[in-house]
């Protein structure tokens, strides 16, 4: 049995049973295609917001040989922090849209963005807790840090799609990934490799074109925004599909066990 979603004449089918790594990845690519037109604008805007502080401050740094004053650098870091927080609302909206498509639920871009804004504060708190736990794991030993980095990674999806709280989102992510660590790591490695390859290709291309283009810096920045927007969408699509697969693997199995253990009636 499958869930079907039609978006821009692209049929997306989400399996309702646990699937192989190959099928999960294939579903992620198809989810990316099915929701592309809805979320590409969100992704582009989010990346523009992230790069705005650099657009304002970097030209100043490049045109001055003297070290910038402390107040200037303080303003840059504050602007970068604010930009990162604001852009997070757009990323949460992207997760909401992909999640709605995956679960065959109606959702508009505006409603998704509103949901992202509502979850922004608890998401920030959960993200801080996530970084603290991962940092502690890295300080103690690298391997524990790597383990919890992945097991807690789905807290944002749990919070947006299943309305989990700050602690419960981290806890649910850990429970879902625990026992499926290597499978999850393998699935998420694929989009990371794609991102790396595309970034390297852009860097090499701009290194070549920089010899001929007078505005190579501007062109490079635009290309980075476009590449980031595309690769982030692919990552989030695969992220959502993997989250759904983990739910089927863990919570689906738990449900079957409860049904088997339930006393017969009638």
Description:
There is one protein chain. By secondary structure, the chain is mostly helical. The protein has one domain (2-63, 71-253). 79% of the residues lie in helices and 5% in strands. It contains nine helices and two strands, in the order ββααααααααα. A two-stranded antiparallel ribbon has the order 1-2. Strand 1 (2-7) and strand 2 form a beta hairpin. Helix 8 packs antiparallel against helix 9. The longest helix is centred in the C-terminal third of the chain and has 46 residues, at 216-261. It is globular, with a radius of gyration of 21 Å. Mean pLDDT is 84; it is low at 1-9 and 255-259.
Q: Main sheet: which strands, in order across? A: 1-2
Low-confidence stretches: 1-9, 255-259
Overall mean confidence score, pLDDT = 84
Distance between the termini: 28 Å
Largest sheet: 2 strands, antiparallel
Number of domains: 1
Helix/strand order: EEHHHHHHHHH
Q: Got a strand count? A: 2
Count of alpha/pi helices = 9
* Overall form: globular
Question: Roughly what fraction of the amino acids lie in strands?
Answer: under 5%
Give the radius of gyration.
Answer: 21 Å
Structural class of the secondary structure composition?
Answer: mainly alpha
Helix proportion range:
over 70%
């Amino acid at each position: 049995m499958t869930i079907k979603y039609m978006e821009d004449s692209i049929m997306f089918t989400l399996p309702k049973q646990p699937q192989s790594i190959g099928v999960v990845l294939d579903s992620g690519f198809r989810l990316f295609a099915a929701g592309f037109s809805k979320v590409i604008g969100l992704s582009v805007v989010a990346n523009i917001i992230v790069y705005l502080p650099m657009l304002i401050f970097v030209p100043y740094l490049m045109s001055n040989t003297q070290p910038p004053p402390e107040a200037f650098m303080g303003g840059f870091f504050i602007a970068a922090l604010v930009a990162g927080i604001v852009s997070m609302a757009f990323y949460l909206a992207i997760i909401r849209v992909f999640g709605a498509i995956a679960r065959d639920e109606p959702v508009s871009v505006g409603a998704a963005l509103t949901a992202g804004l509502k979850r922004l504060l608890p998401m920030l708190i959960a993200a801080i807790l996530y970084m603290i736990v991962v940092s502690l794991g890295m300080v103690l030993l690298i391997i524990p840090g790597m383990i919890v980095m992945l097991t807690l990674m789905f807290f944002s999806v749990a919070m947006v799609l299943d309305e989990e709280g700050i602690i419960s989102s981290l806890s649910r992510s850990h429970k879902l990934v625990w026992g499926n660590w290597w499978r999850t790591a393998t699935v998420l490695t694929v989009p990371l490799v794609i991102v790396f390859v595309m970034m390297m290709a852009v860097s090499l291309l701009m290194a070549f074109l920089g010899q001929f283009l007078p505005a190579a810096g501007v062109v490079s920045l635009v290309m980075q925004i476009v590449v980031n927007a595309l690769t982030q969408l692919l990552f989030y699509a695969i992220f959502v599909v993997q989250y759904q697969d983990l739910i089927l693997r863990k919570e689906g199995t738990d449900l079957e066990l409860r049904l088997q253990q339930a006393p017969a009636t009638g």
